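quick one, two chains, predict together pls
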Amino acid sequence: MARQMKDLSVRRSDTRKLILGLISIGLGLLVILVFNRPFSSSTVSTFLMTPGGYTEGVMDDILVPARMSLWISGGIMILAGLYHLFVGFGKKETTFLILFSILFVFSFLVYVSADKRINIASLFSSALSMAVPITLGAFSGILCERSGVVNIAIEGMMLMGAMVGSIVGSVTGSIWLGLIAAMLSSALLALVHAWLSIKYKINQIISGTVINIFSTGMTSFISSMFLQNIQSLNKTPRFPNVSIPLLSKIPFFGPVLFSNSLFVYGMILLLVVLQFALFRTRWGLRLRSVGEHPKAADTLGINVYRTRYMAVILGGLVAGFGGAYFSLGSVGRFDEGMTAGKGFIGLAAMIFGGWIPFKAMLAGILFGFADALASSVSILRSPIPGQFINMLPYIVTIVVLAGVVGSGSGPAAAGTPYDKE
Amino acid sequence: MANQTPPNNQPTEEKTGTVEIFMEELGRKPERRQSWLGRFWTSIQIPFLAILSGLLLGSVIIILTSANVYSGFRDGFLPGIKAIGNAIVGAYTPLFAGAFGSPSRIIEALRTGERIGRAFKPFTQSLVETTPYLLSGLAMALGFRAGVFNVGGEGQIYIGAVVATYVGLSFTGLPQAIHMPFAMLAGLLGGALWGFIPGWLKAKTGSHEVINTIMMNYIALRLIEYLLTGPMTRTGSGGMPISNTVEPSARIPMMFDPPITLHWGFVLSIVVAILVWFMLFKTTWGFNLQIAGANKYAAKYAGLNINLWTVMGMTLSGALAGLCGSTQVLGVTYSMGLGVSAGYGFDSIALALLANNNPLGCILSALLFGLLRTGSRTMMSNTGIPLDIVSIIQAFILMFIAAPAIIRTVYRLKGPKESDKQLVNVSNWGGN
């Protein structure tokens, strides 16, 4: 049995090497043969390095000679692909993939901005803010699934949080009360999810679907009944951008990283707390053990039900925080269906990040980057439609789940109700 | 804790082999004989009470959001109660009139033989709305029977619709007898492809179909956005995501004269339901599909190729959803837009489970959903209560269907708890 497994994994890594190698070479050829084509040797791509309207942390524009840089990066990509095909990067495969992707994105940016200007700093800064709901959705998913409860209701919880946050924020005029209400409302939905899936042991995906249908219906109902008619109910103050003194004066990094909405800082704070709590505390160990092997955890005296209830409700609070981003953090009002599937992409980021908060955040930023890139590409009127760049996160998730890149196995007991005998 | 669920309720673990299941079946006591009426009641009480409770909770929401009720209670207790009554009657009367047609008009039309079309228009409109629900519900039911949870109905409907639109508008001069079936079939195949991909991925790599189908939904959506604003956009649409109208030869013919807009796709969907029922319950093929879905260990023991049946289940489920998309385009909208599926892909999950994944039951629950949806349009235009109340009611119905224990507790039903079998049999997350 063990030998079979080993054979299987060797075979699998061989096919993986083949596929990845061929893809790398293909993309390298794409860069050299297709991207490079229309340019003369004097074509220059202009990268603006300061977001519009910033006076601190200004950095000069970078002029990139298009043709030469595409030749170089395409060449490196092909060489790396060949190396991976015949020799293999072995354990450094992840590093290879990351560097490779960076090169490809760079080539792509050069390609779309040839003879034009693209604001790299705005791109990164909007990628970071677009990553917020995705990452928070992923954190919510991690909390739930690490305890053994699958939560596809994050989308619905976020939607509810966004609406309640907007209403309470508008009525009270306080962003903080709005935020708290948003978190509580989606924790309430999480409680229902926990109650249905832990007490009644109904299929957790169905229970999640119930909550998604309910939230979509309820938010649209209230929106078209009240919010669209009564403006004062849907005009909330927003969280302001906060610049961190000194750090925000660093060229490029200052405006991008250290002058952001509180949601971005909250996300990073939550990352630190979650990463530490899950993997360095007794609480986290217990939570994870309930998700991996509830029977063993129960035998050791851990209350499986209570742990799961707690984890799901905490997940709901986090999802509500993410939902509040849409109304309180971004536009200052609620629109129907404004989460636009970000909760589901959050699940994808969770899987891509291997159920680990830190990696999930990187995945979230990657997905946010794809979103930001798609919108700036459509502004530049490039021949590649933005919708295809928008598709990338979904395709990447499918590829990751299929085990071609990284591993796709989550907590062992996720999705299984626990029966105490 | 009172969690004495019997062993057959438990998730299949390694040790629950075929032999144990067999022994358990042998040891089971014969069920107490009931009259046919009693048996009928037992079989429908949960769905019936679930629908009832869903409608009740829907009315609670209508009451809570009605301004008249609050002003009524400000005047005193009795006016408040009266306002509640008014709110309910005021909401449900147009709902029923919108769904079935107004009784007086129907009687009038039948008596005088005039204006029959106008009198029956609401009910036939409900049937038009039933068609996509039925087809997408069948897709879900078939998937559940095959042990796959297809959350990708929405994407499959979109792909089916766009492929049917493409065929419908890019071939000209074909006779209707060829063009229309051709366009339908193309849509069906498009949906089948969109279902095949996650099915194949599940069989080949073990990655879970739920997350994959959700991802496929968004890929489909982006693809459609691109097609409708790019290559397939309507000439002069000014960037609106909408396609040209399909050729008249590709449209599904109407069953009656205008103003009734019921098309033959409705009959087709009923035929498909009977066909799916026949395939599932009267052929070896369907038996095998259901075994593969119900217990993969037993199926393996019986020599079935699980992977094959998984792929088949997903593909067929996608095909039915694709058919749903093409009938919508070729029978109702005639052009592809982003609103071609009004959430059918998700609502149909509730629909299929309400019908206990029985294709014939799906006809009834699709009719219910169609009536609700059409009726709520009239309700919205008469009373201003938004259409979305239907989604809320559907969510409640799904919740009660999935957790019959709630219904049993609330209505003090004595029914045996053992009969609360798992509604769906879906493998664990993450490909375990």
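The first helix of chain B runs from residue 18 to 27.
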